Amino acid sequence: FSKKMLVLLAVQKKLLALVTIKKNVLVILAKKMDRNLRHRSNYYFLNLAKKDFSVGKGVCKLWKKMDYLLCTEKKFNIVLIRKKRFLSVTKKKSILAQQGITSNPVINMVAIWVFAFLLYGPAILFWEHVAGHSVVEKNQCHAEFLKKWHFLLCASTLEFFVPLQKKTYFNGHIKKDIQRRQR
């Protein structure tokens, strides 16, 4: 890139980070200040705002490593939101009766954070120790496993294709249920 383009990209990146921080701070503050927003389904949106806020404030090396964890968690969180909507639309009566451990948003969020961490966390933390050396040069900023296609294939299948399949399933059944009700 030319110097002019690099400056433009740097400015754009900083503006995007500032907008991300600002919008997510507003979501977090709104949740804290307005009692009407303190119901179960909004906990998931608060969790997304906290994740986006963390990505927006990141520094290069930390951001590159945390990006995998936080973006994976975001995808799982969106699947969880779609599942809750699916249950509320298709199984309204039974969801009201189901107030067990799986309906607790805190337990669900902890579970998706743990799963997201288990997907990338060990690789982020221990890759260079298992390999015996770091493959990332000092002036570079990327994850150690970036060029390991077998790891990326497995991880991206679990991170992207499985959530995509689940969201498609939930959305399809929501649509069918709504169409059935309209008839």
From TrEMBL:
Record field: transmembrane: 106-127
Organism of this sequence: Trogon melanurus (Black-tailed trogon)
UniProt-listed GO biological process terms: adenylate cyclase-inhibiting G protein-coupled acetylcholine receptor signaling pathway; G protein-coupled receptor signaling pathway, coupled to cyclic nucleotide second messenger
InterPro entries, alphabetized: GPCR_Rhodpsn, GPCR_Rhodpsn_7TM, Histamine_H3_rcpt
All residue ranges annotated as the G-protein coupled receptors family 1 profile domain in the record: 1-183
Keywords attached to this entry: Cell membrane, G-protein coupled receptor, Membrane, Phosphoprotein, Receptor, Transducer, Transmembrane, Transmembrane helix
Family matches, as Pfam families: 7tm_1
Gene Ontology MF annotations: G protein-coupled acetylcholine receptor activity; G protein-coupled serotonin receptor activity; histamine receptor activity
Main location: membrane
Cell compartment(s), UniProt: Cell membrane
UniProt protein name: HRH3 protein
Topological relation to the membrane, as annotated: Multi-pass membrane protein
Gene Ontology cellular component terms for the protein in this record: dendrite; plasma membrane; synapse
